[in-house]
Specification:
Purple Acid Phosphatase, chain A, domain 2; disordered N terminus; 13 strands; 7 helices
Length: 309
């Protein structure tokens, strides 16, 4: 069993290793005494099933489920322990959602082998009954959300607050939080869903995962947004005011981060915050090495462009 980690001592130039030709691959930097975990993540894909058209625009030829699936397949073929996660807003943005109401999105994510996802505000756009139906009929992975109380809705048994996933000797805990819905989503779409304090509920679940479940790594899937110039809760505030969370994978603000942020939590421990824009234009990739009786170490963190070639 791996010891619990005080996670992520920042490595200088961590994001560069996989982006500069001629550098050693991150897999070459790990000795046989280490175990590597690769975390792949998306956010705000917004029903981008096909790549953007090759029309000369800024995003021409980028994104698309097929390209992402091939990239995920390739990374899995090169690495033993791979985790695939999504931080919400799976729905809305192309006619595929208007016609199929999320069925295709969940089918494709299931085929890609996503391990878990959280909920974004646009995932309510077809209504609560539709969200529940699409998850029940077409999702093979759990929806994790800790700060939405669905007790009086059809979603009451269609989500979980946390999950433990084992990858080899590494035990990973996952929780999730979502943005305030009032004023952002029509009440008729989210009905009796109650929004709860994301920091308190993420911390509660993370403490269970870290201390009761003895997880080596705790990840929070967040659809709060990266950073606001106001009192509104965001990923920075979550990181700085939480305990037991090691990684925050964000969404909602469509923020393209060229490198992760490293912040200190209430216990003075490092938290990594990362987000990869929107529309599946990038696939987030975080490489972490684990060694018995030593802290986990982030050796690479980047957003890989999803495009031909």
């Amino acid at each position: 069993m791996w010891s619990r980690r005080s996670f992520l001592n920042k490595t200088a130039g961590a994001g560069a290793a996989l982006m500069i030709p001629g550098w050693a691959r991150s897999s070459d930097l790990i000795s046989e005494a280490h175990t590597k975990l690769v975390i792949l993540h998306t956010n705000d894909v917004h029903s981008r099933i096909e790549p953007f058209p090759n029309d000369g625009s800024r995003n021409a030829g980028l994104g698309g489920a097929s390209l992402r699936a091939e990239m995920i397949k390739q990374i899995r073929s090169e690495n033993e322990h791979v985790l695939l996660l999504d931080s919400g807003d799976i729905f809305q943005g192309t006619p595929y959602f208007n016609f199929f109401l999320g069925e295709l999105e969940f089918k494709l994510m299931s085929a890609m082998g996503y391990d878990a996802a959280t909920i974004g505000n646009h995932d309510f756009d077809g209504g609560l009954e539709n969200l529940e139906k699409q998850i029940r009929e077409h999702s093979s992975f759990p929806i994790i959300i800790a700060n939405y109380d669905f007790s009086d809705t059809v979603m009451h048994d269609r989500h979980i607050k946390r999950k433990v996933i084992q990858k080899g000797d590494i035990k990973i805990g996952i929780t999730g939080v979502g943005v305030e819905l009032d004023g952002l989503v029509p009440k008729t779409l989210y009905q009796q869903t109650q929004y709860l304090d994301p920091i308190a509920h993420a911390t509660e679940q993370a403490n269970i995962l870290k201390h009761d479940e003895k997880c080596d790594l705790v990840i929070c899937l967040s659809h709060l947004g990266y950073k606001y110039n106001s009192s509104k809760v965001d990923d920075h505030k979550l990181a700085q005011n939480s305990k037991s969370i090691d990684v925050i994978l964000g969404g909602h603000t469509h923020t393209f981060m060229n490198e992760p942020d490293y912040l200190r939590n209430k216990e003075g421990k490092n938290v990594i915050v990362h987000q990869v824009g929107w529309a599946g234009i990038r696939l987030g990739k975080i490489d972490i090495s684990f060694e018995k009786n030593k802290p986990g170490k982030c050796i690479s963190c980047e957003g890989i462009w999803v495009k031909e070639g």
